[in-house]
Write a structure and sequence with these properties.
Elements lengths: L2 H14 L21 H15 L16 H12 L2
Helix pairs in contact: 1-2, 1-3
Length: about 80
């Protein structure tokens, strides 16, 4: 796992899941299992935009691109930070 994915996973666990004993892994289904709700997705999108230095186009904000930390990293961080 690269540093961008590690930073994202840390953000999910320390910020979005703060106060919970649950910890997500890189392949944890974030929405299907109720880890992240509709409000937290806004914070997640903002974090990805700040980390990547790019705005995520509205048409790219679809659930399939945000299913897991690994998917988010592949779809946005790894390709955008190269």
């Amino acid at each position: 796992m690269n540093s961008a994915a590690q930073n994202l996973l840390r953000f999910v666990n320390e910020e979005l899941l703060a106060g919970s004993e649950r910890r997500a892994g890189v392949d944890t289904p974030l929405f299907e299992d109720g880890w992240i709700d509709s409000l937290k997705i806004l914070h997640l999108i903002a974090f990805v935009e700040i980390e990547s230095g790019r705005r995520i186009p509205d048409e790219m904000i679809v659930m399939d691109r945000f299913r897991t930390v690994g998917e988010i990293a592949r779809n946005f961080l790894e390709t955008w930070l190269q």
